[in-house]
Amino acid sequence: MANIVSKVGAVVKEAKMHWNEPPHGRYMPYKEIISYAGGGIGVKFLAVMATNMILSATNVLIGNTLGVEPIDMYIMYFISVIANIPLSGIRANIIDNTRSKEGKYRPYIVKMGIPSAIVTILFVWFPYNQFGALFGEGNFFGKPRAYVVTCAIILLLNFIQNFFYYFFSEAYDNLIHVLSPNTQERADVSTIKGVIYSLAPSILSLAMPIFAQLLTNNNLYDIRLYRYIYPPLAILSVMLSIVVYVNTKEKIVQAKTHVIQIKFMDSLREVLRNKYFWVIAMATWLGFLETSMSVVLNWLYNYGGIYNGAVNSVITLICQNAGLVGMLLAPFAIRKWGKRFVLISTNVLNIVFIGLMFPVIKTIDMSGGEAGPANTWVPIVLLVLCYWMNNLMNAFMQILTPSVNADIRDYQQYVSGERIDGMFSTITAIGGLVTVASSGIVNLLYDKFGINTETATQVINDPEVMNKVLRNGSVVKDMIASSDTASISYFSLYDSNILQTMCGVLIIASMIGAFINVLPYFFYDLTEIKQQGMIRVLKIRAFFEDYGNGTLSDDDLVEVVEMVDSAEQLKDEKPVKATNDGVKAAKKSPELRSRMSSAKKSKNMEAFEAAKQELADAVKLAKEERRAAALREQEIRLAPFVLKELSRFNSELGRLQLENANRIYEEGLEGLGSHSISELRAELKKAKRMPKRTDDEKEARQYAVHFARTRLTARKYQKKYFGADAIKVPDDTKLNALFNTEEQYDKKEDKLYKSLYEAQEKKDKAQLAAVKSQIKALKADFRELNKKIRDEQNHRSNYNRSAKPYLDARNLLRQAENYAHFDEIRELYSDIAAKRAQEEAVTV
User: Fold this and answer.
1) Closest CA relative to residue 353, chosen from 303, 401, 387
2) Most CB within 10 Å of its CB: which of 73, 159, 611, 641?
3) Cα 281 from Cα 423, distance rounded (Å)
């Protein structure tokens, strides 16, 4: 007991110590982690509700509840995806060019959450069943007029929700990418977030069947159920998302003076070069069939009536608890085996568990008559077990997906120099056309195997089916009579033969989808060491950029110099894998075990406790030595990344880069226009013909192709923006003046909000009204100022695109010059270290 109290006390002490300051080697204090994860409950509530109303090939709320036919829903889904492509492009451009003291993602968590919540409430409260009376009888496009209006309303709300919800959810999900550059910390925080915010769907899944049993005759697809539950949850979601906004801070690894300014097509071109993005994107686009079987358990409950709402709630809770177990295990699995191995192994196991569902589903008796355990509860238990294992494997992806996506964006910044996160979502949306095209297969399966109006009509007119009493006590005809839906297509599932066949078909489709989904992951080779090495390189690049611009901080200087010194000390060492041998040996210590045994036999408890404590100390020391060995192994593996970056201009490729940069810089802006497009195209073709047998040859070819393509693209932009004229260098005076004005506005805004707080404390209504009026006027000034800044930045970006080879050459030469001053920086480090040592001595 004393040991438990001691451990709890240590945890509390640790939490207090790092509540506002992160532990060594980490970037997120505990307050930030808890706020990000806890506020995520609200985000997840809204996510469940919003995705239930966003069109897909098999949307349950739109299909089963609002009665949209499967084929019509697929057509609407296709239109929705097409419309989402330009919307995602707008979102990407906004995010990638965001320059705000609040960060890249934080501003949009609340701004986009509020309208998304409003649309969610509107969606469930539209009077769909009254459209017949409101818009009259008759047909339109061969369908009842009320049905067409319902489809039009659903489509319109989807257009709006596609913009606001995806903006909101991407801002929250992608926030983890910039809260920490440490890939393991991202995985750990994603686990904490996943465990906490998974409470939202668990609560909702538990509540829905219970409320359905109380209010809608066990019908999960009655619109009234959504009207009771969704509005209060939508309001709660917005309130909790504010917690995330207030208590988090973005930490992007880049120079303080770096200004993001990138056009849509430029960022698109850069992302298209990211090989790791294509691996993950292909897995996403091609795995469309894997989730086909997700509706089976709900169908068995709602249409098979095999168990009641209480049992369904328990089954749902059990299956979702697998997600909790998986999320808790994921960080340990990632730490032990790496993301690639976990990605592949969990997806392969998914194929196995989905496949096992097929023989199980075939043994379930769905007739409603008398049947033994072998045809009722035994296969249901086995089916739930398979679902539990499937959810366990999928839970790993909830941790892996944000962690992998963050690593991919680090790689993008590493190869391009820009943090262009938003464009990834745009290309994913464009690639969603692949999913749309292939998702039609599911709708065709629905229609082919009986989910259509014709089959449902036959089922409704079949007395045997209509009078059937389900095992949960419900009568089919009573359930159909009480259903609040505009379509009868899904009523065909009350026929046990159709239900059983359809469940089997969806399981087979899911197994095929899982197999296709795993294939791209075999090409993913971005290891944890490689990611950490890239982060160190990014820190070095940002460090030297700040050094060249005179904005270097003492903390950054100390960090980078110590990083380089450590790498140089370890450069000749070979990594030795850390093992548990020392810990195992300490636990089995013959001497201490013998002393404990002798003391126990002689009932000398004092000697026994002393030997036991010595054993615990020995094990603790062995664990510390193992951690130190693992850290040293990691540092040895990371050293080459640091040293290669510092010596990059001494390599053959580095010298070639400097030679090209000198030539471009000496030719100047005028020289960019002296090369014809046909000449530059020929150079690009020549670069593509370069050999790529070895890693060095691949790196050289990649550089040559990129260099030639950059010059060709810039020449095209020059002709577009400047015609036959020379490239003109823009005057930054006006833009800098606007930035200064923006800084003054920020200071004025801070003062006004302090005044507002004081007026509220004093309850001075006159002062309160005056301050609010000033804030309103300042916001108008901000809007006008931001418009002017955007206009000036557009002029500047036209120059940047046309002069990119010259600007890249200038930046590279400056970088090489800055790298040459590292010995001088070391002297600064010695001064700072001596100064800090003196301050610490005075403090002591």
Assistant:
1) 387
2) 73
3) 13
